[in-house]
Design goal:
By secondary structure, the protein is mostly helical. The protein has five helices and no strands. The longest helix is centred in the middle third of the chain and has 38 residues.
Length: 138
């Protein structure tokens, strides 16, 4: 709909004559549909999206806090198996002294050692993740 035509037709029908700048409507930097879309998007964010995602954030924050800060999970610690690593190394030395393969003496020797080494790695990652969460303010 052409605003100028509408205004001119009303003036022609006997409205009082006034000095009005009719181009004001054209001076908006956006069209009305854009404004409606943006307000709708903003409204969705504040009325629905935030509540849905904030609730998820609070739930996940609680889980992360429980595990990483409050130690709700009782994970095995490398100190729990430190002596086991020494035992494995001793088994390896004794097997070598006897001229045997360590797997002949203890078939799961390598897997056991790998598990202990991996525990060290996992524990290091856990500590780094704790630090990251603390730095984040959790």
């Amino acid at each position: 709909m052409n605003t100028k035509k509408t205004v001119f037709s009303k003036i022609a029908k006997g409205m009082p004559k006034k000095n009005v700048k009719l181009g004001l409507v054209d001076e908006f930097d956006y069209d009305y549909d854009y404004l409606q879309d943006e307000v709708g998007r903003y409204s969705y964010s504040t009325e629905e999206w935030f509540d849905e995602n904030f609730d998820k954030f609070i739930e996940i924050r609680g889980l992360l806090r429980a595990v990483y800060i409050q130690n709700s999970e009782s994970f095995i610690d490398p100190s729990d198996v430190a002596e086991d690593k020494n035992r494995l190394l001793e088994i390896e030395n004794k097997a070598n002294e006897l001229g045997l393969s360590v797997e002949d003496v203890y078939p799961n020797w390598q897997e056991h050692m790998d598990a202990i080494d991996y525990l060290d790695y996992v524990d290091d990652r856990f500590v780094k993740q704790q630090d990251e969460l603390r730095n984040f303010g959790l």
